[in-house]
């Protein structure tokens, strides 16, 4: 990261030492002013003693790279206010974008048909690696009024994530974002391990419609060294468990360590038989690797696949609407791409749905 020019620091310090303290993280005066306003509002709202001293401490923490969401304690996610704290991954705007797009597809009937969620079993959604619970909370709160029999489950291996997700349910109920649950509706967060066969077996028997996940997908090398792909603040302050697959996870032949969750989640989808699978991933190179391996999967021929970019509901701006993949067997495969921005998700659905 380039050094800040001395004149910029002098200009910020002229206005406020707190503004200057924020510059190393914000990099420009406008961003620093915005963050100073938000932090000051947070201090005033939480009624801290010695507000001036506390404000200065928070600005110094932010300047050292502590994520703003950990300082403020929350992050907007759709119409929700999601609590954030160290030890649990911070929700990203791209995750919000594809979750909102999924909601729109369900509501309009373009995903599962107009009558989805109104049959005997309703609409059942499971989110693995749920973190703050932002994805299941936004799905449930957005669909609750239109789908009478709605059941959403978030699963995470980390106890601190499960606790925070449950707190987020409670907070958004108090804020009125989640209404009183009707008979036949449920929103649950549970502790479970994607790689534990017993935890997955416990989910068998329910007619799952949608499986969604933002799993760990960062390589060990990128985590250790950054290489311009992962910021210092993320590597220093956000949980490795949520970003990098554990060394103990078995890596199937043909897969890379950073892609191991996709291999496992595709196997889980084969067991749970959801109608739709939506998996967030890191970049185009990872999409190419995962799709190449997925082409060898037993269920691949019965499913339709497409890729979503960061903003899947926007028209592409000069971006290619197709993605060419070479399978391990040497066969070419063209996958449609929708939206604008960087490659962000793999979207899989049963043919005919």
TrEMBL record:
PROSITE patterns according to UniProt:
N6_MTASE
The GO annotation for biological process reads: methylation
**Could you tell me the keywords of this UniProt record?**
Methyltransferase, S-adenosyl-L-methionine, Transferase
Mind telling me which NCBIfam families this protein's record contains? hemK_fam
For whether the record's keyword set contains Transmembrane, the answer is no
- InterPro entries of this UniProt entry? DNA_methylase_N6_adenine_CS, HemK-like, N5-glutamine_MTase, SAM-dependent_MTases_sf
Protein name per Swiss-Prot or TrEMBL: Modification methylase HemK
Q: Which GO terms describe its cellular component?
A: mitochondrion
Record keywords: Membrane included?
no
In alphabetical order, the GO MF annotations are: nucleic acid binding; protein methyltransferase activity
